[in-house]
Amino acid sequence: MTATLTETERHGAPGSPTAPGVPTGPGALLVEVLAVAGRRLRHLGRAPGRVLGVALSPLVSMVMLGYLFRDAVTPPAGGEYTEYVFAGGAVQVALACVGPTAVSVALDLRGGLVDRFRSLPISRSAVLFGHTLADLLVGFAGMAVVTGTGLLLGWRPRAGLLPALAGFGLIAVLVYAMLWLGVLLAMTLRNVETISVVTPFIVVVLPFLSNAFLSPRSMPGPIRPLAEWNPVSAVITACRDLWGNPTAPGGGFPAEHPLAVAAVTLGALFAVCVTVGLRRYRTAGS
User: Fold this and answer.
1) pTM, two decimal places
2) Domain coordinates in residue numbering, the chain
């Protein structure tokens, strides 16, 4: 396997000999990432229920709230409640990716896989980037299941093809940011049991503390600012605008500039998770 190594990874301690014949550069790093992603996908192929696990919570929300209770809930801006709630279900797909990624990385740490990768001439960053790339494809599969269900229940993108694709692109960015949040949780908590307790709250609590299912205006006063400034609310509002679906009125700056808020918050979250996650992974077990 080819490898891209940082100076410390390639040379080891100062004064140690350089590993001869080890290719470096973006091309070698890409090969490493794809190799790790392929290994991860082969493992996931033995557990196809992973896609259902990612899509299950969004499907329950869409069917229970968007279909069974659609006549009992009035969308804040009129229109069909099924179309209002779909963006909330799409965001839940991204949030549902946090737990499985965190658990799998923690299991790799517990099982000694990190030590085995250390013995190979491979960039340590390639391991996590390959892992998240494979999990991103699982997130796409879960999103396809949720989108198909939404279409069956009556959801429609009404602003044209390009805005619809842009909305799904924003969801893809959120999915990848959440995968790195899962990596950071794994590197911080490391205990599978603790991760399994903590991560379900991300899937359940964050959507209900946002505009996923109800307008923040209908929430109690102390909760309303949390729902309005929740980054999830910005992503949901931006997707509803791009898809031409009903949106919650008001909400101040986040509701008026959802794309800007989503870009800043997701960019900051991604930068922190990648930087801290890689740093802790490189020192794990050392």
Assistant:
1) 0.85
2) 25-283
